[in-house]
Amino acid sequence: MPQKHYHICPRNCYDTCSMISTTSNGVLVSVEGNPSHDYTNGKLCPKALHDVKKVYSPSRIRHPLRQKHRFSGDWERITWDEGLDLIARAILGIKNKYNSTLPIALNKYSGNFGALHNAMEWLFSGIGPTTRAIGSPCWSAGIDAQAFDFGRFICSDPQNMAKAKLIWLWGVNPAWTAIHQMSIIFDAIDQGATVVCFDTHLSATAVRSHRFVQVKPGSDGLLALAMCKVLLKENFIDPKIKDYSVGCDEFISYLNSEIDLEEAAQTTGVKSETIKNLAIAYGQTHPACIWVGFGLQRYTNGGQTLRAIDALGALAGHIGEEGGGVNYGHFETWQFTDTQQSQSTSPNRRLNINRFATEALNCTDPPVNLLWLSGRNPLSQDSDLKLWHKLVQQLDLIVVNDLFLTSSAEAADIFLPATTHYEHWDLNSSYWHYWVGINEPAISPLGETKSDLEIAWNISAKLNELEPGSCSFPTHGSEKETVLRQLSPTLLRQLGLSEPEEILSQPAKANLSPTAWSGRKFATPSGRFEFFSATAAAAGFPALPSYLPAQQPPGDAPLRLLTPHHTSMINSQSYLESDQTSNCYKVQLNPQLAQDYKLKEGDLAELFNESGILQVRVLLDPTLPRDVVIIYRGATQQQSLDLNVLFRSTTTDMGTVSTGAPGFALNETFVNLRKLTKR
Ligand SMILES: Nc1nc2c(c(=O)[nH]1)N[C@H]1C(S)=C(S)[C@@H](COP(=O)(O)OP(=O)(O)OC[C@H]3O[C@@H](n4cnc5c(=O)[nH]c(N)nc54)[C@H](O)[C@@H]3O)O[C@H]1N2
Ligand SMILES: Nc1nc2c(c(=O)[nH]1)N[C@H]1C(S)=C(S)[C@@H](COP(=O)(O)OP(=O)(O)OC[C@H]3O[C@@H](n4cnc5c(=O)[nH]c(N)nc54)[C@H](O)[C@@H]3O)O[C@H]1N2
Ligand SMILES: [Mo]
After folding, report:
1. Which residues contact 644 (CB under 8 A, 6 or more apart)?
2. Any idea which ligand is nearest the CA of 381?
3. Pocket perturbation via mutation, ligand 1, pick of 376, 585, 641, 670 by most ligand atoms within 8 A of CB
4. Which one of 255, 317, 516, 584 is most buried, by most CB atoms within 10 A?
5. Whether pLDDT at 583 is above 90
């Protein structure tokens, strides 16, 4: 008899879809979108539809493994007991040697965003103060910016975007990274909305928009400020703005003294006439919605860019407007019971996730000796890969718990195989829409795979067996109960539930206000929208949203490399068939630039800079400027060809206040190009 189970896609993605699987005789047969979840709306992206193959993929690791020498690929199968014993003894050995648990480090991020995956953090807290990767490689700058302006990081219900008459998609590519939102955008278009896409190149979303505004990378803050100045001149300022804001006059003086439309046109690459027309359309259309994506803030001025866009929204009176606003994301439904915050009061040693290798190498008293990577693939996704390799050589033990032998697993001593979300319980929230749901297991764990929670219990049990009292994390329990317990009183209240069990039948939507800042009561210290933010000033930034230029390419690396997210991947997780992968990345180049380097379509070339060298194949793209090259991170057969060899750890301006560390300014990666004649 076929059976149905409910799941939530746990990937780091806006859509966080509700899925229904069908199993037959204990085998996962198919997955479809849940029709009663009105965001997923019965549809799934091609990646999720690929899940069945991924679960049963021959490359999925089903048993614990030990590697004789790092990067040798010489793996041997070990039993769970052997693996747990090796790890627990290493932990206790370090503790004895240093009289401290700080040499034990955890680096976890977004392979699976479900609440159950915090288990590794709970385990580490049970061991004692340890070294942790904090912050985010993703969105930190924008979060701080919105926290300065609005007081908290919230967004309107994205389903409300259908009510907008004007939608600006700014540094976001939902046609690839949030496909369900595209349906809502198309609904808005059907009801007469105009969609404008601001991007550095003709993205998949730009081609589906009414208008594409091509902006020079990192200059959007100036574009927003120039539009603010037009609003001012053309008298499109919300007449009530001063009633609910702080610092409006100072901001207007700043615009008057510092912002010049012609200069802005020069810097941003957007004609002054276009800037003017865009600003007027934005000023006179209500409701007008801006969606600012994560691509936009991956710069050393990324936080300032978001503050400038927030100010534009406020000045035109779009904040708090139903179907309008400036929307970036939210944390509102992430109030899990055992979530650990990156608080400065934490006894842990906190290393910026974006400078992890550098900072770990600098730890001397005591050093970092043991590294555990969970739901994390830094040797593919991070910067400073040479330093990562140096760090790896210095460590006593590296443990990776993952589904596949990733680039990072190549560095591991011990690999612990994890279950997929079809094999464990979980609880998932979105950072975009308001739905929260339980993920139930549909099949038994494949082979000897274990959920991250079970692995954490097992390690604690082994530690306590070897040295009673050495870990306060539980040694066993019920996965379902642990997951349900994560529905904190706040979360239950938001979901309108009295008991956690009530969420078991179907996902629930939080009853948050569908319009962020409706009533224009803000969470800032002043209770108003803060053009002038004393909190920003206290954190070392200008109090007003200001244009501070991003870095420009240096002479020896004259091309900016952008690597936005690929339709068939979730970061390093590939959903491509093996025949769709190629043996090197494709780099998109302006044809004239290609000509300068005597390159034509299909040629092999190398991108290089002081960090590394990457072999690429040329793909001509006439829509690109001459100083920007793009690689969409599709899969390659050889993991050693990891794209991030070209990246160094440049960090964003903002991010520390909300996430504990600044973000990753990955769009300030500069490269040089040369033709390869062989092959
Ligand atoms: N060049 C470049 N680099 C980037 C980016 C970019 O755009 N360009 N984007 C950056 C951004 S925005 C982000 S968020 C980061 C993301 O970087 P990471 O957080 O490292 O994300 P992933 O590559 O999605 O996943 C990491 C690992 O989690 C594993 N995993 C999946 N499910 C589970 C599970 O249930 N349990 C366990 N234990 N493991 C699991 C996956 O197999 C994968 O190997 O990368 C950043 N790096
Ligand atoms: N299919 C798929 N979906 C994903 C992911 C994935 O890897 N694949 N990753 C998930 C994760 S971790 C994240 S963070 C989100 C990211 O999803 P998005 O928020 O869409 O962000 P990005 O794809 O990084 O970049 C979006 C766009 O910003 C543009 N951009 C870059 N610099 C600038 C600039 O200076 N100005 C302007 N105006 N535009 C600029 C890029 O060219 C790109 O088209 O997607 C999530 N969803
Ligand atoms: Mo991300």
Report:
1. 380, 381, 382, 383, 385
2. 1
3. 376
4. 516
5. no
